Amino acid sequence: MWVLIVLLSGNMAEKNETDFILNYMSEVEAVAEEILTSKQHMIELDKKRQKSREAIRVLQKDKTSTKQWVCFGNMFIKMPSKETKLLLEKENWELICKIHYPLFPVIATDFLTYSRQNIDSEVYSW
User: Fold this and answer.
1) pLDDT, tens digit, 9 for 90 and up, residues 67-94
2) What is the pTM for the complete model shown?
3) Which end of the chain, N or C, is more open, meaning fewer C-beta atoms within 10 Å of its C-beta?
């Protein structure tokens, strides 16, 4: 009778250990999936930031035209170059803040508040 109790308790310990390992591995897999998703999101944000930076650079080089075509969703609008550049700079800074927000939450929040107050008043004054 004692042998049976020892064997049963041994099987219970192995079962608990197996359950613990399975739970641990599933948690590790969930965290790894979250990390990969987050990394992919950062890559997409960086690609948008890069395109925004390229557009700003083109506007800085082009001194001849006074208006630019800008795509908003599925429509194009012709806007003055200065306002277009300000919108692109605002978008670029917002993307930078989104990319670095986990590292610098206070700086990002303060900058976004500052940029919205100053850039919005300049952009929509025309």
Assistant:
1) 999 888 899 999 998 899 999 999 998 8
2) 0.62
3) N
The domain in which residue 24 lies consists of: 2-123
CATH number of the CATH domain containing 66: 1.10.287
DSSP string over the chain: -HHHHHHHHHHHHHHHHHHHHHHHHHHHHHHHHHHHHHHHHHHHHHHHHHHHHHHHHHHHH--S-SEEEEEETTEEEEEEHHHHHHHHHHHHHHHHHHHHTTT-HHHHHHHHHHHHHHHHHHHTT-
Nearest to 99 by CA among 63, 45, 59: 45
Domain count, the chain: 1
